[in-house]
Amino acid sequence: MPLDSGEKLGPITLVYETYGQLNNGRSNAILIVHALSGDAHAAGVHSLENPDPGWWDSCIGPDKAFDTNNYFVICSNVIGGCQGSTGPSSINPRTGKPYGLSFPVVTIADMVRAQRHLIDYLGIDKLLAVVGGSMGGMQVLQWTVSYPQRVRAALPLATTARHSPMLIAFSEVGRQAIYADSNWNGGDYYSGSHPKSGLALARMIGHITYLSEISMHHKFGRRLQDRERFGYDFKTDFAIESYLHYNGNRFTERFDANSYLYVTKAMDYFDLSQGHPNLAAAFAKSTDITYLVVSFTSDWLYPTYHSKEMVSALTAIGADVTYCDLQSNWGHDAFLLEVETMTGLMSDFLERVEAEVR
């Protein structure tokens, strides 16, 4: 498969899961695209031995926002990832060893290009909807620009049409944490110790941006962890510190450091207006798509103005766009946590789109 960098990648494995049944007309398929740390396991549980529910289990299933009584839901792991799809930890068929940094740089458009091959493989001409938050929202937007004839509706949630300098700065600090780990070894660490300390630190940095000051006060305040008074040392004192350490270390159990580098770089490169006079021009061929754009008032990673810029561009081309800036204290993670509000909003929207298809 040709990549935006000019290189080619293949053979490619794309891991995916499906939920519900594809109808006879093949018109009820919804593609769910995941954020940075997500994967194909969006809902349900795999087995008694692996009982962790999918990352959006609260919204996918019978009588949920993406009602599998009505819809055929698809979720795949992006290329460049580390949960089964081809990425830097995959075996390079030319060498018989993991790619490491010899893996070509991939973009959001490359991820979507691979997903389009999956949709072709499944025999689906047109998706009822493409849905995703954060990096998933970037993929949603890219779908509407790259393959507007293959999408009826788009739901970009808590996302942006381009990474701002601040977002690129956060990404780079996370990457530098990995580079600084003594086990990173230029990305060639698969036969030895992995750079877990660097990856955990990168995750801690990123996780802060997913929260909000209000949610931190609500969840942690200035509470101490496992002690009654300050230790006046450099061990963990506060509950928020313990939380960040826990999440950082847990992340290293399921994610690859090189994939973190590649995926964050893909997000930094993302700029939907690149090659066009402006953002509205990028959406010029997407006028037949129905949009639901959602932002959250406390999201400082992708603030409301990012979504308003998208809405203005879509309005300029005459697209059918509904915009909701939802009140929430949960920061960027609100698109995963505001389940009741999001369920009502997305269910009503999809019902309207489905009615228009009939």
Describe this structure in words.
With about 350 residues, the chain is of the alpha/beta class. It has 2 domains: about 15-165 and about 270-355, Rossmann fold (3-Layer(aba) Sandwich), CATH 3.40.50; about 165-265, Orthogonal Bundle (Rna Polymerase Sigma Factor, Chain: A). Helix content is about 35%, strand content about 15%. It has 11 helices and 11 strands. Strands 1-5-2-8-9-10-11 form a 7-stranded mixed β-sheet, sandwiched between helices. The protein has a two-stranded parallel sheet with strand order 3-4. Strands 6-7 form a two-stranded antiparallel sheet. It is globular, with a radius of gyration of 20 Å. The mean pLDDT is about 95.
